[in-house]
Structures are given as structure tokens and as C-alpha cells.
Request: fold
Amino acid sequence: MTETADMSFEQAMAELEKVVGQLDKGDVPLEESIRLYQRGAELKAHCEAKLEAAQEKVAALMTDAEGNPTGTKAVEGL
Amino acid sequence: MSDLFEDDASPDAGPGGNAHEFSVGEISGAVKRLIEGEFGQVRVRGEVGRCVLARTGHLYFDLKDDRAVLAAVSWKGQVARMSVRPEEGMEVVATGRLTTYAGQSKYQLIVDDIRPAGAGALMAMLEKRRAALQAEGLFDPARKKKLPYLPEVIGVVTSPSGAVIRDILHRLRDRFPRKVLIWPVAVQGEKCAPEVARAIAGFNALSPGGAIPRPDLIIVARGGGSIEDLWGFNEEAVVRAAAASEIPLISAVGHETDTTLIDHAADVRAPTPTAAAELAVPVRLELMAWTAEQGGRLRRALTRGLAQRGQRLRDLSRALPRPDSLTENARQRLDRADAGLEAALTQMVAMRRLQLSRTAGKLHPALLTQRVDAARSRLAEKAGLLPRALTTLTERRGARLDRAAARLRPAGLERDLAQARRNLTGLMQRLRSAARNAEDRRARKLEALERLRLSVGYTETLKRGYAVVRGDGHVVTTAEAAGAATALEIEFRDGRLPVAGRGATPPAAPKKRGRGTPDDQGSLF
Reply:
């Protein structure tokens, strides 16, 4: 399994959905339900962190005479 | 004067007459002036024929209709400004000026601008190109890649100024602010296609984790415009770059009604740049709400699970009976059994005793005596029978013996004995005669051998007059040996005669029988 920290939002979301579904069914043993809850909480925190970290950053590429990228410069005011 | 006269006098006499005589260069220049003056700015409609882009960048092509052909040329600079590049078979309206090319006695149209003659012609050409690229499989649905759910970096290929990038950024900001990397390109004109193609390939060429982040998603966008304005997005290079892109690509070119070839090659086509932004990212607030909801469901599910278990535990523990109640019943039964035990034992013994006395009552000595008496009388009876039985048996056996003895006769044995005796006598006689015969045979054989021995032996020879000479005890066979011997002895048939040897006394005896030399005698042996 991918480490939670390395998971993409989509992966974490998919697993969170699965965990919630399993726990919702209610037929899991107690120990398993506690493990699922902990896992779900971990995934939720990861998803939230990904959502919180969303920030806009706009840059334009600079190219040389042949059109090869040489770097970026921040773009503002758009 | 005569010259003048001659000239004047014969205006019709020779070719040329007194008309002005041009040099080739003059007449070429005159024609050029005339043509350029008359057709300085014309629009010519026709079908593009042979079309060659020279290495210098100039474009040479023919315009034709069913009867005539017009050579046309666009210089490099003009080609660069064209929105539509002429292609063979295209129906076009070319704008330019007529001029001549004196070097080849040609006239040609210098074309500044060229436009497809009517939308129908252009669409036909577009359709032809689309079909060709489709046949190559570039628009194959199997090639389409799934867009990432939440791209980290979005590459936008568009003009850095204008409404399009602004629309995209606004919508992204509303939904889910992301890192956006703009690759500025010309979105119309001749630079458009090569720049867009290079930008798509360039984004793909960035290495993940490099100085410039590689996008997870590319949006190629342009606002609405005429079909000529959008033409760059129909160019093969752009279509191929979009199809080859490893990074999922959204095309958003023109308005909803405009379809360019890049739309077919893109993984997803967005009707507008704003729509492209909506396709690119989910709504952050919705996701936050969703995540919170999932957290709530998690908590509720766990709480519910715990509550249910707690309730069930309580229910079960209520249903669980007291330990005392489990044994009460059994204890009671034990007590009852305990109480009955002694009485039952007494009763049992009494009952058995009664049975015993009943059985023992029938048991008395007479019963036994009776049986003994009966057995005894049977015994006496049988014993009385015994002597007779023995006698009978003995008699029966004696009779059998007598019968067998009677059958036993000595005659047979005696006969056998006499026969054997006779045989023995015969055999003895044969043995004796055989032994006698063998003896006789051997005696005769011995006699014969003796005769043979005597006939072969030298003594028989002596009888015929021969003698044996011995010297010093050995048989002498040569005169020389006889001469050397000290004493000689001659053996005759009837005895031996000693003779003095030459070695001792002069010999006399050996000469007695001159013929029988010792040599000859020796040879006999």
C-alpha cells in the first residue's frame, strides 16, 4: 500500500470512501472497525491537508530563440 | 538625304519599316510597365495547381481554371503572413499584383494574401485531412487518456494576453486553485501551428521533478474566430502533437460550434476555455464538504458499532441466568435421591432374602441320593455287560487270525528258494569255466611271449653259432676295443670261455672264429 503521505488526493479519496463503506456496513469485528476508523481518520486528514494546500500560482514559460523553455516568470494580475 | 528618302520612300518595302525598333530589354520593360500599371492590385479566383515551397521559403504555385494557367509566387515574408497556405486542389481567391519575369518571358501573379474561395472549399479540404488522420488511427478512442482527478500542475497553451487565459484562471480559482504554467503561443497566423505543436511537445519533454514542473494536464485554448483564424489548430503538426502527448490534453478552441482537428486528437474536448477549467479540476469546497461528510460517517459508524455492541452486551448479560439457578434443580434431585437411598436398600435386601428362602426350600439330600442311585444302577448294568463283550471281541479277532493263517502256504517260498539255488549253481559253473578260460588264455599268451622272447634273445642266436665277446666284463664290439682289453671272455651256446687279452698275453682265442667279428656281433644287438 502506498504511504498515506505519498498518496494523491484521488487515491486517498477512493480509499476513504472504501473504508467508510466497510465501516458503515457494520458487520466488521470490533478490532477491525477501530482499525478502519483510525485509517479513515488518517485518510481524511490527508485529504483535508491536500485541500488546504490548494493555492494558486501562475507562471509563464520563457523560451529561447528556438522555443526551448529556459525558465518561468510569475504572472500576476490575470 | 538619300538615306532619308529611301527610308521614307519605302514604308512598306521591308520588315519593320520606319516603326520603332525595340531591343528585347526595352520591349520587356514596356510590357512590364503596361501589365503592372494595368493590374497593380487584382483578385484572381482559381484552383491551386502544382505547389512548391522552395528552400528559400518562397512559394511557387499555379492558379488555373479549365482553360488557362497563371503562374503565381509568394515571397517568404508573404508566406509567413498567410493564414491559409495554398494546397493543390484548393479553390482560392488570391490577392496580389501581376508582374512579368523578363528572364523567361513570363508573367506571374505576386500573391500577398490567399483565401479559400468560400467556406465549402475549405471545409472539403478539412474533411479530407480529417479522414486521412483518422485512417491513421490518431483519433482512436482507445488512445484517449483519462484526465487526472486533481492535477497538481496545469499547463496552458494559449496566448498570454487576452480573455482566454483570464477565463481559465478565473474558473480555476473558483473551483480549485492550482499551479498553472502558461506556454505563450501565437493563436493565429502562420506561427500558430508550429508554436502550439512545440508547446505540447515541450510540456511533455519536461522531466518530472525538474526545475520547471511538468504538468499533469494540458489545456490548449483559444477564443472564437473565423475558420481562417482557427486554421492553425487544423494543421497536421498540431494534431499529431496532441495525439502524441503523454500528458492528458483538453482542447478548447473557438466557440462551441467550432470544431478543429485538434479537438479530435485531444483526450477531451471542451466547448469553451471556461469549460476546460471546469473539466480540469473538481470544486474544492465540494470536496471539503465531502471529506467532512466522510469524517462524520466514519465517526457515526464507529459510534453506532460501539453502541450496538454495548446494547447487545447488556441484552446478553440480562439473558444470562444466575449461577445458583443453574444448580438448584440438580441439588433438589440429589436431596430427593439421598432421602430414598436407605429405604430402597432395606427393601432390596428384604426382597432378595425372600427369593433366597424360596429357592433354598426346594434344596434337600434326597434329591441328590436319588440321582446317585440312578447312576449307580446304570453303572452296574453296564459292568455286567463287559466280560461278554470282551470274549466276543477276542473270538472275533481269533477267527480273523485263523483265516489269515490258513491262507499262508510254504510251497511258494520253497519254489522260489529252489529256483534261486539253481540259478546260483548255474552262475557258479559259468564263473568257474570263465575263470579257467581266462587262465588258459593267459598261459597261452605267456608261452607265446616266452617263445618270442627266446627267439629274439641273443641266446637263440648263440645256438646258430654266434658268440658274444666280453672284455673286462663289458661286451666288446670292435677289434680295437678287444685289443685294448686285458682279459676277454667268449660266450657260446653252452658256456663261457675266458681268453687272455692282448694287453696281458698274446691273443689266440679270438681268431678261433674268424667270420664272427666283434663288429658283426655288435650289430646284432
DSSP finds two helices and two strands in chain A. Chain A touches chain B at residues 8-10, 13, 16-17, 19-20, 23-24, 26, 28, 30, 33-34, 37, 40-41, 44, 47-48, 50-51, 54-61, 67-69, 71-72, 75, 78 (CB under 8 Å).
